[in-house]
Amino acid sequence: DIQMTQSPSSLSASVGDRVTITCRASQSISSYLNWYQQKPGKAPKLLIYGASSLQSGVPSRFSGSGSETDFTLTISSLQPEDVATYYCQQSYSIPYTFGQGTKLQIK
Amino acid sequence: EVQLVESGGGLVQPGGSLRLSCAASGFAVSDYYFNWVRQAPGKGLEWVSVIYSGGSTYYADSVKGRFTISRHNSENTLYLQMNSLRAEDTAVYYCATTSPERITIFGVVRPFDLWGQGTLVTVSS
């Protein structure tokens, strides 16, 4: 099974800050990497697919990069509504594993 | 409008069984692949199972031999039959897929952009 490791597990930043979350796969997954945002009591929401493609309707302050084993989710200017937990997920092979999540809060 | 609506969650004793349903609208379950993803209270997301349009099924090791994913085409519904339930199966269960109108755009990556609202399963005596 492919293990997905996110860092940090939690993060506190100020409004307007640039925020970066990383995700590492235990083996190469090419660009089969997706990012989700989850707010309390809600289903996850797709933000980025294929490592760097922005899902329709997602603000352009969100971006993704990386390939093979190392990936990054960046929020260019943090907004209050970005408070959530973020998960990476590989869709390269079954089981379609998720990272453990990064909880993002406003400082 | 395409949507997924789960039902069937509830309280069950350890060793018991429960069947979850995920009703699809706006598209046919027979034509697409569907996943179950769960989230234990206060924990992260865990992929559970998938059924492909051709009928192939796969499971996480944690549920293999106890859970069965299936679909009923005429009811346009996905199911998850859960047997021999354990306390560690307590979670919100989501069905998730790639929405039909985005499949061509997403290509082979197949992210989960369509999710149900989730249904809570509690395994406790």
Structure in words:
The complex is a heterodimer of chains A (107) and B (125). Chain A has strands spanning 4-7, 10-13, 19-25, 33-38, 45-49, 53-54, 62-67, 70-75, 84-90, 102-106. Chain A has 107 residues and is an all-beta fold. In chain A, a hairpin with a 3-residue loop joins strand 5 and strand 6 (53-54). Chain A is globular and about 35 Å long. The model of chain A has no long low-confidence stretch (mean pLDDT 98). With 125 residues, chain B is mainly β. Helix content of chain B is 3%, strand content 46%. Chain B has one helix at residues 103-106; strands at residues 3-7, 10-12, 18-25, 34-39, 45-51, 57-59, 67-72, 77-82, 91-97, 114-115, 119-123. Chain B is globular, with a radius of gyration of 14 Å. The N and C termini of chain B lie far apart (40 Å). The model of chain B has no long low-confidence stretch (mean pLDDT 96). Chain A binds chain B through residues 1, 31-32, 34, 36, 38, 43-46, 49-50, 55-56, 85, 87, 89, 91, 94-101, and chain B through 35, 37, 44-47, 50, 58, 60-61, 94, 96, 102, 106-113, 115-118.
